[in-house]
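Typical record is below.
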Amino acid sequence: MAICPAGVTHQDVVTPILGASAGLGGMTLVFLGLLINVNRSLPPDAPKAVRGRVRAAAWRVFAAFAMSIFSVSVALARLVIPGGDCLYWASVLAFAADLVAIVGVALVTTRWLLR
């Protein structure tokens, strides 16, 4: 089993990544549900521009959710398939991309809501 600096194994790193990715995915899914609810609660005569912006935000949040699911999948594969530096680094990079995606979506959506 490969050892990271300070005697930490890859499994010691990937296990929390799995949990954190799943948690972020769950929070993202709740946020997606909120946006879907906002879209459904708009009156039928709401301008198309407003509906389009809510839908665009929902698709961005869905993309962040999909990134979380991908990160969970890679981390789980790393735990199931022993060894393999490739899966270790893939899980670390997928988690980093997941964090960037979620922060980006939060910034864009917050900016949109505060206009």
Q: What stands out?
A: Residues 26 and 65 are 8 Å apart (CA to CA). Residues 9-113 form one domain.
